[in-house]
Amino acid sequence: MKANHLILQNLIDINPRTGIIKLHDKRMGLISVEALSILRNDLINTLGKERTKGFLMRYGWACGKRAAESIKMRYDWESLEELIISGTVMHTLEGIVTVDPDILEINDDHLYLTGYWKNSFESENHLSEKEIGNEPICWTLIGYASGYLTSAFGKEVIVYEKTCRGKGDAECYFVAETVAHCDEAHLLDLRYYQSESMQSVLDDMYAEIERLNENIIESEKIQNQLTELFLEDKDINDIIHTLGTTLGRSIVIDHYNEVYSSYFECEEERVAYKKLKACGVVTNQQNGLFFESFLIKSNKVLLGNLMVIGKQKLNQREQIIIKRALVVFTIQMYHQRKLTESLWSKREDFFDELIDNKIMDENIINRQAAIFGFNINEPHRIIVLKVIPQKMKERVLYFLTKKYPLFDLFLKDHFIVIISAEIEDQGIEALSVKLLNEIKARLPDIILHIGSGRLVESVYKLRESYVDAKQICDFVQLTYPVRCRQATYKDFEGIMMFLKGTDHEELLMFYKKTIGTLVKYDEANSGSLLITLKSYLDNNGNLQQTADDLHLSIAGLRYRIEKIESLSDIDLKTGSGRFNGQLATRIYFGLKVLGN
Predict the structure, then answer these.
(1) What is the DSSP string of 553-580?
(2) Are the C-beta atoms of 572 and 561 separated by less than 8 Å?
(3) Comparing C-alpha atoms, which of 279, 304, 278 is closest to residue 293?
(4) What spatial distance separates the first Cα and last Cα of the chain, rounded to whole Å?
(5) Which terminus has fewer CB within 10 Å in the chain: N or C?
């Protein structure tokens, strides 16, 4: 007998009167592939993937073994090879899969068979569920082939899929080999052929439910303990410490990369956390430690990030406890946020009205200033910061609040406003430079412009300092639109007084005569020759400093200077020419800031 002589009509016997179907004298039943798919999905939902895989592989193995026993007894096979190949034909005739053998090698007690499985009902069902996994899923086919070949060859054979459509491969390709000659990596599947009673499955599931129930009860007790601490008005550090000691793990809550609260089990984990944040790489594991993060959110508002650090990943018990604890942290941090927002709103209203001279009653000013710890008897000046892009303004404000808790900070007119107590001119410049450098170090992708106003003796004149600071900040942005810069009132005091006390028509005529053509050229060509001129004059004609400032080569800068001289009434080689250029550019930008 040869394998290709197997024909379904000769194998199957259908009795239309009794409805009994027999294959090789064994009763069969027609079952739709859809029904098998439903059974498979129900098993996965009930038992889980691992147990379902074992169940279907054992089922397939039994089907394949019985098919081999039946076909061996019924026919006189020409060779062992024909008997082996007949299994692929039987599998195809049963309508489960189309089997296309590829390689068959038999050497004494060593069997090696490969081939393609096409139209696998299991892979088609898996793909119809829109699931792409990372392991083969034709479990029934694997079991059938293993059972058939083990029975037909007389030695234990294991079958595995080298590629499978169910895990995203182009085709299902199987390999069958005797256990004695197979790689150890594939022998792990032998465990699935060990019988497992439904009772043992139910016992395992019951034990798992018991463990889950115990974990839920324990997590509820811990949540109640943390809630009691919150209701007792304990600090969030106390709650973090309680949670950390309960789990035996380090816990950190941060926001915008600023630590809000933390508890560390050991110094090693504190150092590891700092290294993780410093490297700026998002990872779940580093240097033998696991870092697992959980968002703290309320009403779609991100309040912070909770990170758990430990030498092992969180187990089920710990995950349930963390999720319970997140509820407490969310409530506490949201409550604190609302209190802070309320306080900030009142602060902003007070300082906003103070700057706009809306509060004239000295008693009201004294009373409200006392609430916010503001000394109205000291001289003050205003510093304003403009952040680009605007959406990063909150990040900068948060950073300054954490870094300088004693600053009087608030938002006004798209600016971050700082009211600074008496600081000399040199000191205010140093402070502005320090603020610029610290903010850029923390948030390198933003553009920041800072302007500081005059020092005023009375709070009733704070508006003058605020107007100065705004105009200077706008001036800095106009002259350095894509670079971070700061400037103080001292830098612009002379030109501001000059602009406010002079006929603007005369000033317009002077700047137009001096650099008017240059301005029009820049406007028509989206150029930056005016910025180049200002930088050159600010650097006292030093080519190298100007080139570094503008990120130009010396040759490129020389070309620009020649172009500037050709388009303006300025001789940059003379002192009077540079003075006229300096005055004209200051008038131009100053008038723009003043709105003229």
Answers:
(1) -HHHHHHHHHHHHHHSS--TTSHHHHHH
(2) yes
(3) 304
(4) 105
(5) C
Question: In this structure, what are the phi and psi dihedrals at residue 412, rounded to the nearest 5 degrees?
Answer: -160, 130
pLDDT at 246: 92
Q: How many CA atoms lie within 13 A of 564 on its CB side?
A: 27
Cβ 468 vs Cβ 489: under 8 Å: yes
**Phi-psi region for residue 332, left (φ > 0), alpha (ψ -120 to 50) or beta?**
alpha
Tens-place pLDDT, residues 100-129:
999 999 998 899 999 999 988 888 888 877
How many CA atoms lie within 13 Å of 274's alpha carbon, on the beta-carbon side?
6
The two beta strands, 26-28 and 98-107, are unpaired
Q: Model pTM?
A: 0.47
CA angle 347, 348, 350 (to 5 degrees): 65
558: number of Cβ within 10 Å: 13
Look at strands 250-255 and 258-263 and give their pairing. antiparallel
Could you tell me the strand order of the sheet in which 110-118 lies? 98-107, 110-118, 172-178, 157-163
> Residues 6 or more apart from 564 whose CB is under 8 A from it?
518, 529, 532, 533, 570, 572
Q: Residue length, the chain?
A: 596
The answer to whether the bond into 405 is cis (omega within 30° of 0) is no
For tokens 């020419």, what's the residue? Answer: 577
Rounded distance between C-alpha atoms, residue 61 and residue 303, angstroms:
55
Read off the tokens for 301.
Answer: 């508002």
CA gap 26, 83 in Å, rounded? 19
Question: Under 8 Å CB-to-CB from 328, ≥6 apart: which residues?
Answer: 223, 226, 227, 230, 239
| Among 356, 397, 355, 349, CA closest to 372 | 349
Quick one: tokens of 497? 């007084």
Burial 327-345 (b: 16+ CB within 10 A, else e): ebbbebbbeeeeeeeeeee
Dihedral sign, CA of 36, 42, 45, 49? negative
Residue in the structure block whose two tokens are 């083969």: 136
**How does strand 285-286 pair with strand 289-298?**
antiparallel
Q: How far apart are CA 42 and CA 62, in angstroms?
A: 21
Residue numbers of the chain with a pLDDT score lower than 50: 596
Which structure tokens are listed for 140?
Answer: 């029934």
